[in-house]
From TrEMBL, chain A:
It holds the Pfam family GCV_T_C. The glycine cleavage system catalyzes the degradation of glycine. It catalyses: N(6)-[(R)-S(8)-aminomethyldihydrolipoyl]-L-lysyl-[protein] + (6S)-5,6,7,8-tetrahydrofolate = N(6)-[(R)-dihydrolipoyl]-L-lysyl-[protein] + (6R)-5,10-methylene-5,6,7,8-tetrahydrofolate + NH4(+). GO terms for cellular component: cytosol; glycine cleavage complex. This is Aminomethyltransferase. It is an enzyme of class 2 (transferase). Belongs to the GcvT family. Residues 15-269 form the GCVT N-terminal domain. The keyword Lyase does not apply. InterPro entries: GcvT (IPR006223), GcvT/YgfZ/DmdA (IPR028896), GcvT/YgfZ_C (IPR029043), GcvT_bac (IPR022903), GcvT_C (IPR013977), GCVT_N (IPR006222), TrmE/GcvT-like (IPR027266). PANTHER family: AMINOMETHYLTRANSFERASE, AMINOMETHYLTRANSFERASE, MITOCHONDRIAL. The keyword Transferase applies.
UniProtKB/TrEMBL annotation, chain B:
InterPro entries: 2-oxoA_DH_lipoyl-BS, Biotin_lipoyl, GCV_H, GCV_H/Fam206, GCV_H_sub, Single_hybrid_motif. Binds 1 lipoyl cofactor covalently. Gene3D superfamilies: 2.40.50.100. The glycine cleavage system catalyzes the degradation of glycine. The H protein shuttles the methylamine group of glycine from the P protein to the T protein. Pfam families: GCV_H (PF01597). This is Glycine cleavage system H protein. The lineage of its organism: Bacteria, Bacillati, Actinomycetota, Actinomycetes, Kitasatosporales. One of its GO terms (biological process) is glycine decarboxylation via glycine cleavage system. Residues 24-106 form the Lipoyl-binding domain. One of its GO terms (cellular component) is cytosol. It comes from Streptomyces himastatinicus ATCC 53653.
């Protein structure tokens, strides 16, 4: 671990955020927009129209070379050599004990070129681990954190907004695909990915071009109600969509199987990979004795569960812990994700409550996600 | 933002109106506090008829990101709570000094150190 810098880092769009009157927050050593106005309005804009995000804090790492694919198969739990050029994959990097170091999106940009996108808080850990794990391969790991600004346009109107600004064939760009192109006349990696549960795009551009792209999207989106969106609504959007967040649902004390995400671990891929033995044991253990399951909770009342609160069973004993909780703008009720003992984790399981600062508040157990967009 | 001149303010970011002829003051949180909280989604207010003590917690305000204690700026008996704000907590954000008031107290004692609008502005740097 390195010490956090004394002053937070600012993205290439910092002046734009300040001109918009954003409330800023420190996030993993970055000064990021928390919200511009009402976070609930920003959330609703993404669900019904479109929102524009600055995600430049995310950590980009490039892997290139003849054995880049083999290096990633060894370093990550996924089967990245099987990923087609132009496609993206959600995957994880684990330690030798099977604990999750980070969850990642990996783009295959060319036969011998990958882009790994890590969480801001873990970017250094991931960079160090990839560098070490790739050392035996004919592959180069490059820290590209300063090479990109990352903008996201998310929401049902986002394809229409982007279409007029790009030469890329958006209709041919599937969910979890990415291709190089231009946006507002500047080079961009255009990816159909996001963290909101909506259709949308993430645009990797040179920092010097970020403001131009932001302004072009703002102008193109204005007629259909696009608004700038901060990290606060990004969190409620991903929570409604049942997407895990590192440090909440995921951590080094959690294996992908604990998180109900064992499907990202590809035991059938060729060669050994870091954590294989521990993850095979974790898979067997999860089969034999189901661990606490990541579960959705919906409040019957209006008090909001927060990360770390105890989940209580019918007899009042602790049966789990809340990992993320927030008022859901879409459902109009507080919601939470929680790890809950398997016997109480089925949807409709009776008598489940959350201890909200000493008061037992009844909660309904539901299947994740809380929200799924119509396709 | 401007803090109404006729109100007084606590360092916990509550405002307090001048007492009416029955000695009852209205209490709310300031615009500065409402902006800092973000969208308020739930308010828990003291029961009508209960007694609150200056400087002590008497309820809570929940926003998307956090929960904050509500402090009583004065001591006294709660005579009324704002049912509108219980049903629509967003009033705290949209009209903190008006429709977003929280509760009324028949004041029995008030602490030293309540601030004027100018003093509160200096205290909260706005």
């Amino acid at each position: 671990m390195t010490d956090a810098p004394p002053t937070p880092r600012r993205t290439a769009l910092d002046a734009v955020h300040r001109a918009l009157g954003a409330t800023m927050t420190d996030f993993a050593g970055w000064d990021m927009p928390l919200r511009y106005g009402s976070e609930r309005d920003e959330h609703t804009a993404v669900r019904t129209r479109a929102g524009l995000f600055d995600l430049s804090h995310m950590g980009e790492i490039a892997l290139t070379g003849p054995q880049a694919a083999d290096a990633l198969d060894h370093a990550l739990v996924g089967h990245l050599s099987a990923l087609a050029v132009g496609r993206a994959r959600y995957t994880m990097i684990c330690d030798s004990e099977g604990g999750i170091l980070d969850d990642l999106i990996v783009y295959r940009l060319a036969e011998q070129e990958y882009l790994v996108v890590a969480n801001a808080s873990n970017a250094q850990v991931v960079l160090d681990a990839l560098t070490e794990r790739a050392s035996g391969f004919d592959a180069a790991v490059r820290d590209d954190r300063d090479a990109y600004a990352l903008l996201a346009v998310q929401g049902p109107q986002s394809p229409g907004i982007l279409k007029g600004l790009t030469d890329a064939d958006l209709d041919g760009l599937k969910y979890y695909a990415g291709l190089p192109g231009t946006v507002a006349g500047v080079p961009a990696l255009i990816a159909r990915t996001g963290y909101t549960g909506e259709d949308g795009f993430e645009l990797f551009v040179a920092p010097d071009d970020a403001e131009r792209v932001w302004q072009a999207l703002t102008e193109a989106g204005a007629p259909v109600g696009l608004v700038p969106c901060g990290l606060s609504c990004r969190d409620t959007l991903r929570l409604e969509a049942g997407m895990p967040l590192y440090g909440h649902e995921l951590g080094t004390d959690t294996t992908p199987f604990d998180a109900g995400l064992g499907r990202v671990v590809k035991f059938a891929k060729p060669g050994d990979f870091v954590g294989r033995g521990a993850l095979e044991a974790a898979a067997r253990e999860a089969e034999a004795r189901p661990p606490r399951a990541l579960t959705g909770l919906v409040a019957e009342g209006r008090r909001v569960p927060r990360a770390g609160y105890a989940v209580l069973g019918p007899d009042g004993s602790e049966i789990g812990r809340v990992t993320s909780g927030a008022p859901s703008p879409t459902l109009g009720k507080p919601i939470a994700m929680a790890y809950v003992d398997a016997e109480h984790a089925a949807p409709g399981s009776p008598g489940v409550a959350v201890d909200i600062r000493g008061t037992r508040e009844p909660y309904e157990v539901v299947a994740l996600p809380f929200y799924r967009r119509e396709r | 933002m401007s803090n109404p001149q006729q109100l007084r303010y606590s360092k916990e970011h509550e405002w307090l109106s001048a007492a009416d002829q029955d000695g009852v003051s209205t209490i709310g949180i300031t615009e500065y506090a409402a902006n800092a909280l973000g969208d308020v989604v739930y308010v828990q207010l003291p029961d009508v008829g209960s007694t609150v003590a200056a400087g002590e917690t008497c309820g809570e305000l929940e926003s998307t990101k956090s929960v904050s204690d509500l402090y009583a700026p004065v001591s006294g008996e709660v005579t009324e709570i704002n049912e509108d704000v219980v049903n629509d907590p967003a009033l705290v954000n949209s009209a903190p000094f008006e429709g977003g008031w929280l509760f009324k107290v028949k004041v029995t004692d008030e602490p030293d150190g309540l601030l004027s609008a100018e003093e509160y502005a200096a205290f909260s740097h706005n």
